[in-house]
Amino acid sequence: MPTLNELRPFKAFPPGRFITNRLEDRNWTQKELATVLGITPIHLSQVMKGESPLTYDMAQRLGATFDTSAQYWSNLYLSFVQWKNEDDLALSDTEVRSAIYERMPVKDMVKKKWLKKSATVKDLEKQALTFWDIKKLDFSFIDEKFTPCLNRKSEAYNQFNASYAATWFQKAKQVAKAYKVPAYNKQKLIALTATLHDATVDEAQIPAFIKELNACGVKFFVLPHLEKTYLDGAAFMDGKNPVVVYTARYKRIDNFWFTVAHEVAHILKHLGPDCPFVLDDLKRGDVDKLEKEANQLAAKWLKHGEAIAWIERNRGTYITQAMVVECAEAVGIHPSIVIGAMAHAEIVSFRNLHLFNSNVLELIPKAYQQ
To answer: What is the per-residue pLDDT for 8?
Structure first.
């Protein structure tokens, strides 16, 4: 006699049954729903019948439309697919590939050599399982553990891909294990922030500053962002050691210093059980309380307020490059930080951010670049 785990459900329904119930609650037609979802009625019909895969992208759209989680729709679809494949509950090659590509930017990862180019779907699946350290191809843990911590609102639908951001974070956690630093010393890190602006004056001091950061017990490395993640940096804990990751999304000196300062602020003020990690897009306009506080601390440590005050006292009709240099010398920061402070304060255009900015990756030792 089969056990409860071996019993097969009498019938698993395609997503359409559940979508229809939602439509009836709202008195909508399928055509109206297709318009809301931004797909054709034919495509919606195929999804509802289970003839076309319900991708994670579609699960996100349905979740947003019907005020549910994306995981709800993904699980319904997965249950239906498993029911159809009674013999071994295996997904087809198309479904496996679709599931992985929806959650992981495979082409970008292959380009970065985070994955090997796969000759077969089986090999791709094996690599995905190894990357996430999971036994079966079920990505629901991303929705449960990672997505709630991201809180990223995009300006356009699917501009930001939360699963791709979680993938980048998984890689960052793997890389962090390879870096060895002494025990974390919070007081030493606080003392370092008091002299942070001094380190910015000379570009050649960037390697020395990174070593000081390491001496505080903070791991640091550069890890390029993935497509549709729009990340500048991150802060999280690797065991008892905090980690700062810089993506070099913008390879400017001012961006490097502000991102590092911002992540250090998160380490000192925010990381904990309720905030296990922070992934930052510093161009976001919609920032929460934690991000505002990190921005304010970073600006304070980099003397943004003093630079702007100096410029306002001494400016004429135009702000010249010579004036920026003079301001930087007077305040004790790099000229690029003066430009960055003025751009964020909307005193000058962001187009000026290229001034006084070398490629910061040329200044960061290769040992810290992934």
So the answer is: 41
